[in-house]
Amino acid sequence: MSQQNRGGIDHAALWSAALASVITLSLGDGRYDWLSFALGSSLALQIAAFYRPTPPGPDDRWDRCTAAGGFGAVGGLVAAMILAWPVQTVVGTPSKCHRLFRQGEVALDDCAGAAAYSWLGVVWLTAAVTLSSWHWLKVVRQPTPPPPS
Known about the structure:
By secondary structure, the protein is mainly α. The chain has helices spanning 3-27, 34-50, 61-91, 95-102, 108-140. Helix 1 (3-27) runs parallel beside helix 3. The longest helix is centred in the last third of the chain and has 33 residues, at 108-140. Mean pLDDT is 76; it is low at 1-5.
């Protein structure tokens, strides 16, 4: 596979993972469950299979820097999607959710999902910084070959 074709696959893998993560995390109503974990794991495998952080060329340092940020941001979304179910289990269902549910003001699943939602921002930020740093060290800081003469 040529390097030019490889770049198209890299971008498609990241964009499809980003789109699926955003849809699942923002439009999924109620409690996170095994399905968000399975979808996130599948997207992580898709990124691992099709994304290769290779430097585009000696004069494209800006592209390599933005690629590191993009990879970290999308990887963070996928990590948040994978960890939504475990985070929700640790956070638990707040007692206010039970009270609001008894009063008929809110569905219990919606309230439990909302309680975990704020922690997913911490998961995303941590994973995004970690993955961006890894990409930076793996690609951006690597010496590039001299331009062809």
